[in-house]
Amino acid sequence: MIIKKNNISSIKLIKYYKLINYNLIYNNKAINRYKKDSFEISVNKADNLKKLKKSIVEIRNCTLKKNAKNIVFSDGNPKSKIMLIGEAPGANEDEEGLPFVGRAGALLDKMLAAINLDRKKVYISNIINYRPPNNRRPTNEEIKRYLPFISKHIEIINPKILVLLGSTAMNALIGNEVVISKMRGKWIEKKFGNCKTSVIITFHPAFLMRQPAQKKMSWIDLKMIRDKKI
Ligand code: URA
Questions:
Q1: CATH code of residue 146
Q2: Ligand 1, closest atom to CA 87?
């Protein structure tokens, strides 16, 4: 009889803990709902980013820019030690003026979450800042034209880890002679102006949507990023 009574009170207690979010009790620490990821950057960095954006906005005779609705400059935390670079904006990105906000972006968010990261903890940009019509791949001439901007962008952000998403980003920044199947999942030390960074190449989320079997390889790359001492 006593046992039964104890059981009922334990069940009630568990229900109560669940109701009030028992983590508060077991963690013995209140949740700080006011803590925000700090985005505050030095005046110099902010100024350099502003100048870079302005120089892209002022680019002349560019059909990509003429056809696009918005510049897609970046998203995330400019103070982050991790920078990710994709190919070029698609329709959703062009609409919103932010990188990786469409279906590929949703998968990228999941990939980041798998290693305890999110957009506020990393910095994201693309090789090309304006949407190529019909989401076609940017041409070699277009890549050549935008390369100085993304190189400067990397130098300003000065990340410890640079993640290149897909072969366009890889070929633009590492060289045309390499193939992604051989290059992914390795650390490469590289300099961009005064920035010395560890580069890792991994598959683009849009490619992973077409080839889901390759997700197991991308998981290896993600774990390398998670475990890198920086
Ligand atoms: N694909 C990219 O490479 N970049 C984006 O911003 C969106 C899709």
A1: 3.40.470.10
A2: 3
